[in-house]
Amino acid sequence: MAGSGKRVMTTAVVLAIGSGGLSGCVSTQDKNARAKLVADRTIEGRKPLWLGGRSRDLRVLHVDRVRGRHGGALVVTLRNRGTSALTDVPIVVGVRSAGDRRTELNGGRGLAWFQTHLPAIGAGETTTWIYTTRRALPPGRPYAVAGRASSAGTLPRIAATVERAPAARRAGARRRSTPAAVRVALANDSDVPQYGLQVYAVVRAHGRVIAAGTATVRHLGSRGRASARVALFGAPGRHAARVHALPTIFE
Q1: Closest by alpha carbon to 180, among 128, 229, 136?
Q2: How far apart are CA 2 and CA 216, in angstroms?
Q3: What is the DSSP secondary-structure string of 55-123?
Q4: Of 201, 248, 76, which is closest to residue 147 (Cα–Cα)?
Q5: What is the DSSP letter of 166?
């Protein structure tokens, strides 16, 4: 499907969870708002993606492609030039052929919410969002377009560190069938529990991305700790992975 870049976002469900900041006191209203947000994302994720025009504050710095035996990934580096944090940012990714024909990869219906949306990015910050697919990536130059999103105040910070580096594959059949993975330790030092927390891992070598992957942590409680396994597309070898986690619940 060729993209026109003139899409209109269908919802702004994202994200009015209340006007209060982070707090240790969690009301029933807070809990209900968080549950509604998760449900709204599930419902909206069943619809085709709409951008609502290009974002005025978000700039796509670079898009890298990673191919693997089991699919591939597009690694999108973005910078927020605005003065407010942004949440649930719609992003279309695809490839552009030599004739400048665009083929969208995630514009259809039925994808997980965070396969079409960047969870969050702070004001003035640069971050990485990753789209993954089990299908072979078509030929062409990768691209990404960020749409308009809701603004937010202070974002919860989730610490992510490499717990275990990508393991070398064993010889034989396992080498052909088992993807490399990195183990990530997570720490939520805020009072805001996380649902569907998004974890990202990128491996770079010689100035280019050679492996990347994502994982979803179903629940990470306030002041909680967890560990996540991130399967990687590509061939990381013995190179170190850089990892980060982006919050999905903001108040």
Answers
A1: 229
A2: 30
A3: -SSEEEEEEEEEEETTEEEEEEEEEE-SSSEEEEEEEEEEEE-TT--EEESS-SSS--GGGTEEEEE-T
A4: 76
A5: P
Sheet holding 158-164, edge to edge: 158-164, 181-188, 225-231
Half-sphere exposure of 72 toward its Cβ, with a 13 Å CA cutoff? 16
Residue, of 19 and 113, whose pLDDT is higher: 113
Indicate the pTM of the whole model: 0.85
Number of neighbours of residue 38 by Cβ within 10 angstroms: 13
Measured between alpha carbons, how far is 244 from 199 in angstroms, rounded to an integer?
A: 6
Cα 204 to Cα 52, 53, 85: the distances in Å are 33, 32, 27
* Rounded distance between C-alpha atoms, residue 21 and residue 49, angstroms: 30
Could you give the CA distance from residue 27 to residue 14 in angstroms, rounded to a whole number?
20
**Lowest pLDDT segment from 3-7, 86-90, 126-130, 162-166:** 3-7
